[in-house]
Specification:
Triticin, single chain, 21 residues, mainly alpha, 90% helix, rod-shaped
């Protein structure tokens, strides 16, 4: 589903932000 894909993308983005910090 699109909702699941969006949630996965958001989670990936959060990981990137954490790694950058």
């Amino acid at each position: 589903m699109a909702a699941t894909g969006f949630a996965s993308l958001f989670f990936y983005f959060c990981i990137l932000l954490l790694c950058h910090s």
